[in-house]
């Protein structure tokens, strides 16, 4: 299968817009679960307001949040797919620019030193692209995640001492959730990366933070840890928007990687309650959109 770059450009554009306007079903279901268990009156009121905001945005074809974020595209290439890597990268950037200009969207991307905004949601090394490969025949999957500053500012990394064990990992995660408080617009999805190198660990935390609710870490040790941390985080009393309650997080998700014998990196990346993402799957039969 030869990738059609004009089609890729259009998909990149549509995914950005869809991600900003349509909340995934698993996140909506997450709100329903939290509403059933929230005991704090203020927390219940805030959850109801958030649910209404989602409904209004979708009914009026409007944005879920004014922060259009840093655009991230995760691309997974299957077997038997032919493409020009540089041309693919350029097509996705054009689609991202078109979404911003044609919709139009507020561009949240600026130069890190001059703070100049090109009003394209693009800049040096942005949009962020991650490319991976799997064994699905003639299949390309593109996931778009707009990562806003509220959640992205809830990012933390610590190079732990292996002798401190898993207790140090738990303590670091809980302390960072407390530190972030209401600044990350809870209820959140708390992504935790454990292992690898410093950069891989932070990438794992972001993968964890943007995983669908209800998914489970493939590593049994990671799965057990995310279950324990999910319970612990919702005992902190931070609650929706940090104003108190049981609903601090939809879940804590963990991703792991092998690491060096003398270190144990742990990273936290928090996703806000507007946990936006959109996905397109390309096969010889056409394009399907989802979350």
Automatic annotation (TrEMBL):
<dbReference type="GO" id="GO:0004333">
    <property type="term" value="F:fumarate hydratase activity"/>
</dbReference>
<comment type="similarity">
    <text>Belongs to the class-I fumarase family.</text>
</comment>
<dbReference type="Pfam" id="PF05681">
    <property type="entry name" value="Fumerase"/>
</dbReference>
<dbReference type="InterPro" id="IPR004646">
    <property type="entry name" value="Fe-S_hydro-lyase_TtdA-typ_cat"/>
</dbReference>
<keyword id="KW-0408">Iron</keyword>
<protein>
    <submittedName>
        <fullName>Fumarate hydratase</fullName>
        <ecNumber>4.2.1.2</ecNumber>
    </submittedName>
</protein>
<dbReference type="InterPro" id="IPR051208">
    <property type="entry name" value="Class-I_Fumarase/Tartrate_DH"/>
</dbReference>
<keyword id="KW-0479">Metal-binding</keyword>
<dbReference type="GO" id="GO:0046872">
    <property type="term" value="F:metal ion binding"/>
</dbReference>
<dbReference type="GO" id="GO:0051539">
    <property type="term" value="F:4 iron, 4 sulfur cluster binding"/>
</dbReference>
<keyword id="KW-0411">Iron-sulfur</keyword>
<feature type="domain" description="Fe-S hydro-lyase tartrate dehydratase alpha-type catalytic">
    <location>
        <begin position="11"/>
        <end position="280"/>
    </location>
</feature>
<keyword id="KW-0004">4Fe-4S</keyword>
<keyword id="KW-0456">Lyase</keyword>
């Amino acid at each position: 299968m030869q990738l059609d770059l004009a089609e890729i450009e259009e998909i990149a554009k549509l995914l950005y817009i869809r991600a900003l306007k349509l909340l995934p079903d698993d996140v909506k279901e997450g709100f329903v679960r939290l509403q059933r268990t929230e005991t704090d009156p203020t927390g219940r009121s805030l959850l109801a307001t958030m649910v209404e905001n989602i409904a209004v945005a979708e009914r009026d074809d409007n944005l879920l949040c004014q922060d259009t974020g840093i655009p991230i595209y995760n691309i997974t290439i299957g077997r038997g797919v032919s493409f020009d890597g540089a041309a693919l990268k350029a097509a996705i950037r054009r689609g991202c620019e078109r979404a911003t200009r044609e919709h139009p969207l507020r561009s949240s991307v600026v130069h890190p030193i001059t703070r100049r905004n090109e009003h394209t949601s693009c800049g040096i090394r942005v949009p962020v692209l991650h490319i991976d490969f799997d064994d699905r025949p003639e299949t390309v999957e593109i996931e778009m995640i707009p990562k806003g500053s509220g959640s992205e500012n809830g990012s933390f990394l610590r190079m732990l001492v292996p002798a401190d064990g898993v207790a140090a990992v738990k303590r670091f995660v809980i302390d960072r959730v407390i530190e972030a408080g209401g600044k990350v617009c809870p209820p959140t999805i708390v992504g935790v990366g454990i292992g690898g190198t410093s950069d891989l660990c932070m990438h794992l935390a972001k993968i964890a933070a943007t995983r669908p609710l209800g998914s489970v870490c493939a590593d049994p040790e990671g799965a057990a840890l995310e279950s324990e941390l999910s319970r612990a985080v919702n005992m902190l009393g931070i609650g929706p928007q940090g104003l108190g309650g049981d609903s601090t997080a939809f879940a804590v998700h963990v991703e792991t990687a092998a690491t060096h014998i003398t270190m144990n990196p742990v990273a936290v990346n928090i996703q806000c309650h507007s946990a936006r993402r959109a996905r397109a799957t390309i096969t010889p039969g056409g394009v399907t959109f989802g979350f």
